[in-house]
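Please decode residue identities from the backbone states below.
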């Protein structure tokens, strides 16, 4: 960690609070006097992921999406690290657990923010499906329009809120050019698959209703649902 801090131009005396552990990622809140940062750490073999994500974050920012500025991406010893602005607010999941009576409204805000992201034109080659022929075939019946920015991990732990509005969009590691319907299918699958582990049945239903309204009532057909299941399982190492 000493070497990482040095590479990031941070003094050795900063305080580090561990915020979360992913499968092989860690997030810390870093405090240096009055400054606060988020420090995300990955194994060094995934350094390219942070380099790509930094570009996506910058693009999203330029197009009015509330993302945290990236200060630095560095590789040191066995680790890659991204130091970014600390965004205030609670995760939307935390907020939903605190005020389940607002689930419908919060769902709507969540959907509005996703639709806002998905309206951003992004003329990059889409690499979402190239690597996997099976997933590509599943979507053969749909003419995809992959020229939009999609998040592809848009769920209540990856957005922050002030209780009313979505104030920050986090974790753009999967984001890229794609068809908005892929993003909606993925979010729906995540909410349906694990939502009931975190939320009461009634608030989950209200949240889903609000979200559907927020995204403008986009239809997610069976082919998209099946694709989302396969793709998510692959990402989680279950497929
Ligand atoms: N810039 C930030 N500002 C405030 N909080 C943040 C920031 N970045 C991350 N967090 C907090 O850390 C949590 C996890 O961050 P993040 O989503 O980037 O990593 P992860 O989901 O653990 O990693 P991954 O899914 O890529 O393995 C978020 O839910 C949020 O609470
Ligand atoms: Mg996350």
């Amino acid at each position: 960690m000493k070497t990482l801090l040095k590479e990031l131009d941070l003094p050795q005396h900063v305080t580090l609070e561990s915020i979360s552990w992913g499968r092989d990622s860690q997030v810390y809140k870093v405090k240096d006097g009055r400054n606060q940062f988020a420090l995300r750490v990955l194994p060094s073999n995934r350094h390219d992921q942070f380099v790509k994500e930094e570009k996506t974050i910058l693009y999203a920012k330029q197009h009015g999406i509330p993302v945290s500025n990236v200060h630095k991406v560095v590789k040191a010893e066995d680790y890659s690290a991204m130091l970014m602005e600390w965004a205030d607010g609670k995760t939307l999941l935390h907020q939903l657990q605190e005020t389940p009576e607002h689930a419908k409204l919060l769902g709507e805000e969540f959907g509005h923010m996703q639709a806002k992201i998905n309206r951003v034109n992004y003329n990059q080659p889409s690499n979402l499906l190239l690597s996997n022929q099976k997933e590509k075939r599943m979507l053969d019946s749909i003419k995809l329009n992959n020229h939009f920015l999609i998040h592809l991990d848009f769920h209540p732990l990856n957005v922050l809120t002030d209780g009313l509005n979505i104030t920050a969009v986090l974790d753009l590691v999967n984001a890229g050019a794609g068809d908005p319907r892929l993003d909606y299918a993925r979010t729906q699958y995540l909410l349906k698959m694990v939502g009931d582990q975190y939320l009461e049945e009634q608030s989950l239903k209200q949240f889903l209703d609000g979200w559907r309204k927020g995204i403008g009532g986009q239809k997610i057909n069976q082919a998209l649902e099946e694709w989302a299941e396969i793709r998510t399982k692959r990402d989680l190492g279950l497929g």
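Observation: The first helix runs from residue 2 to 7.
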